[in-house]
Amino acid sequence: MRDGAKKAGVVHAMNFPTYYRSAFKQLERLVFEGYTGKIRRVEVQAHFHRWPRDWQHNAWISSREQGGFVREVIPHFIQLIEYLFGTITNVRSQIEYPSDVELCEIGLLATMEVQGGIPILVNGLSQIAKHEEVSFTVYGTEGTLSLIDWNRLKGGRAGEYMEEIPLPGKDHLEDLITNLIKAVNGKEARLFDFGVGYDVQRVLEALLHPEKR
Predict the structure, then answer these.
(1) All structural domains of the chain with their residue ranges
(2) Residue range 33-168+200-212, CATH number
(3) CB atoms within 10 A of CB 58
(4) What is the DSSP pairing of strand 119-125 with strand 39-47?
(5) CA 130 and chain centroid, separation
(6) What is the pLDDT of residue 169?
(7) DSSP states of the chain as a string?
(8) For residue 146, what are the β-bridge partners?
(9) I need a labelling partner for 37 at 20 to 30 A (CA). Which of 12, 20, 140, 211 fits?
(10) For 87-142, how does the pLDDT look when each residue is reduced to its tens digit (9 = 90+)?
(11) CA–CA separation, 13 vs 181, rounded Å?
(12) pLDDT digits (tens, 9 = 90+) for 7-29
């Protein structure tokens, strides 16, 4: 698909909508303005009381072959990490599965690196006694920023408590569609194409299949 779309010259995009959310745009701006100082670590946390969620049951999302929160949730953060910090390397992971061989993973603990040696920690769990919490946190020498449950941003400087950072109210899906329309009309746009999707899939496969490293 990547090669075919490039050869045909057609407008195409992956559904990576988190980039367009106000909370992420604010996080990106603050990181590049130096809010965090030197980045020490990036951490992705994906905790679910139950997977699939109650509103999410279907024939594939709980299956080991196609489903699981690693395939469903983690790729969005892989895309953000590579967008902000560069190519992910040195993927190491431990996957925990239930006894039923048809069911997807219930735990992921992984480390990775990006350019400059910044370490990435991925902590995923399901089937635990906890309310769902998904976060993307950038730890730095001067400040820490955390994108929480997709739409909220908290930040704190050294010695401060993490506090909510105000955000503009633009809808992220409207922003995504606007960029797609711009691209169709031959205008400059920010889209994430099948090439980006391929790079994300490369990391995803390394997370899911540590035995093939």
Answers:
(1) 33-168+200-212
(2) 3.30.360.10
(3) 9
(4) parallel
(5) 21
(6) 72
(7) -HHHHHHHT-------GGGGSHHHHHHHHHHHTTTT-SEEEEEEEEE-SSSS-TT---SSTTBTTT-SHHHHTHHHHHHHHHHHH---EEEEEEEE--SSTTB--SEEEEEEE-GGG-EEEEEEE-SSSS--EEEEEEEESSEEEEEETTTEEEEEETTPPPEE-------HHHHHHHHHHHHHTT-------HHHHHHHHHHHHHHH-GGG-
(8) 137, 154
(9) 20
(10) 999 999 999 999 999 999 999 999 999 988 999 999 999 999 999 999 999 999 99
(11) 11
(12) 999 999 999 999 999 999 999 99
Paired with 92 in beta bridges are 111
Q: Does the pLDDT value for residue 85 go beyond 90?
A: yes
Estimate to the nearest angstrom the gap between the alpha carbon of 200 and the chain centroid.
10
d(CA 205, CA 19): 22
Q: Which two tokens stand for residue 89?
A: 């390397």
Alpha-carbon distance 210 to 91, whole Å? 8
Cβ partners under 8 Å of residue 98, min gap 6: 106, 127
